[in-house]
Structures are given as C-alpha cells and as structure tokens.
C-alpha cells in the first residue's frame, strides 16, 4: 500500500471506531478505540485459522507501517506540544519541585528497580536475560505515557494541584525516560560490540561519557525548546491574531523544524516540544500575554491532538497482529509477572520521593495511590520496544521484551484506565 492509502485507511478506522465508541461502548476515547482495535485484531487472527490470507494481508499492512518511526519521529512531537500547550504554566511552576523529582528521580528508581527485579525473577520461569537488557526494559517501561495520561485526567474532577502533578510528571518523565533508554541502549550496544557511525564503539562507554550523553540530551532539549518557544511566542505576539492561518503555520513550523534539529544535534526532542508548548500556551498567563496566541491556534491543536490520539491507540491495538505468535502460556505468565513488577516499581518510585517531600510541602490525600494506578503506559513504550527489533541483540531477548511490554501497556490502558475513575471516586 502507498503512504496515502495507509493514511486513508487509518483515518477511516479512526472515524468508524470513534463512532462505535461514542454510540455503543461510551468509554473514554483512548480506552474505547484501543479496545475496538484489539477486538478487531483478535477477530482477524481467529478468521485467519480458516482463511490464512486474511491474517497475512493484515500483518502485511501493519508491517508496512513503521510504528516506531512514525510515533517517535512524527506523532510524538505533535502530541507533546499539544499537551503542553494546554497546561497551566503558573500551576506547573508552583508544583515544579514534585514534578521534577518524580520525573527524574522517580523514573530512575523505577528503571533500576524493574531491571533488577526482572533479572532475578524471570530466570525462575526459565528466561535468562542479561542485566543490561533487563535495565533496557526498565527504561522503556518506566516513563508514564503523557498521551494516555492527559487524555484521562481531563475527564475527572481532580484538584488543580493533583492534576498538574500528574500532567507535569507525565510530560517530563517521557523525555527523561527516552534519554535513559538511549543511554542504556548505547551501553548495551557497546557491550555487544555493535559499532555505529558517529556512535560509541565497543569498550568506549565510561561513566563520564554516560553522564555527558545524559546531560546533553536533557539540557540540550530543554534549551532548544526554550529558544524556539521564546522566539515563537514573540513572533505570535507580533502577528497579534491578525492572520490566524499564519499563527497555525508558525506553530506547525516550530514543531516540525524543532523536531528535525533535535534529531540532528542529538538532544531530546520530547523535552524540547514540552518546553516549547509551555512557552506558547496561554494557560496561567496574564491577559495581555495570554492573547498573544489566538484561540484559533488552540482549536487547531486540540483537533490535531484528538485525531492523532485516535490513530495512535488504534495502532497500539493492531500491533497485537505483530506479536500474535508469541502468545503462549509461558509468555503470558511472564507478561503477568511483568505487570506486577512494573506496578510495584511505580509504587516505590512514587512513594519514596513523595514521603520525603511531605516533610516540606503538603500533598493531597491518596496522592501516592492515584499516581501509582494512574501512571499509564502507552505507545511510547511499545515504540521503544519495537525499535530493538532492528538491533543485533539475541532474538529471544527482543521477543521477551516486546511481548512483556505489550502486556503491560494493554493492562495499563484497559484495566488501570477503566478503573481509575472508580478509584478517584472512592
């Protein structure tokens, strides 16, 4: 299929599935769309037993669509910018300490805890995985998915302080998580003797180089986002709503050019997009500054955000076709244990920092429980796991990581996503 045909198919499915969800299921959009896509994937697999060409055709279409490339290098930038655009800047600044600590220390704690638990528990079921690969899994599964989290927080009557903690952490720990993943991936490649042009060769990874890579990715992304955001805001202020179509084009240009430059100079594009969106957004600003970015811009990005969200969660559901061969009893047991490990690590990564911070600032009741259960995983984790398929690591390692990741993501969105409302009410 051509690119145009693939896009046409995805938009048709997004419209059809959204209609079914609104009229029949009446679930939150992200949950409903993914559930429908999962049901369709299972139906295709069942029909494939009787008519193999159906399954082969569906798998071929999904294989043509490079999920990792499309999400990480295209959709993610737009979705993070749109999410940050509607975030209240003043409230985020007020809650900057817990947001930064949870997004950095919390994510690091979860990464290493998941890695060490997997390294020690999976062998009991016959899955021997080197520690570096276990840490790689911990890095890709630890950051919460801002796309899934933000879509749900908008639907519940949370206090503004709790809502901004959840939204802010998910926006920033995504960028931090991707940097941690890339850092550990570089170490894993060096240990495996994989050389890349312009990359680290085997044996060249040192503590200093790891710290430098991490610092450049994080602070470089923040700086680039601040520069682009400041310039973009000044330009929108100059246009002053006289040409709404130009304002939209300016914001599109900022995201697309900023993303490409981030990739070229090897800094974190997700962090750049978040900072850029915060600069240009009008939430939490005084009236004069808030009016610099016209209402038309926000309506456009809201529409784009909803459309891309729909397509993303449909794709996550359809990815089941890619890993269908891995559905065995032993793999399902591994997936179930992986879910428990990730939830436990999330609880520890949230509870320890918050318990320490409670000595200096006030937190809403049950914050730890809400952040633990509301820490949804989504497309970013799946995309990072899929990115390993092109690397010369052992196939059994890649298959185990991908399958476990998919189990955690599906459980996270369907089970945690569908029950978080009841938890909040309770």
* Rg calculated over all Cα atoms: 21 Å
Mean pLDDT reading: 87
Report the major sheet.
none
Which percent band covers the strand fraction?
Answer: under 5%
Helical segment count: 18
**What's the end-to-end separation, in Å?**
49 Å
Number of strands: 0
Uncertain ranges: 197-203
Model description:
The chain is an all-alpha fold and 426 residues long. 77% of the residues lie in helices and 0% in strands. The N and C termini lie far apart (49 Å). About 2% of the residues have low confidence.
Topology of this protein?
Blueprint: H1 3-25, H2 29-50, H3 52-64, H4 67-85, H5 89-94, H6 96-121, H7 131-141, H8 146-153, H9 160-191, H10 207-239, H11 244-265, H12 269-280, H13 287-290, H14 295-318, H15 329-357, H16 367-373, H17 379-386, H18 395-425
Helix pairs in contact: 1-2, 1-14, 2-3, 2-14, 2-18, 4-11, 4-12, 4-14, 4-17, 6-7, 6-9, 6-15, 7-9, 7-18, 8-9, 9-10, 9-12, 10-11, 10-12, 11-12, 15-16, 15-18, 17-18
Transmembrane segments: 6-24, 31-50, 70-87, 99-119, 131-151, 171-188, 208-231, 303-323, 329-349, 370-389, 401-424
Pfam families: Na_H_Exchanger (PF00999)
Protein name: Sodium/proton antiporter, CPA1 family
Question: What are the main properties of this structure?
Answer:
426 residues; mainly alpha; Cation/H_exchanger_TM
Summarize the structure.
The chain is mainly α.
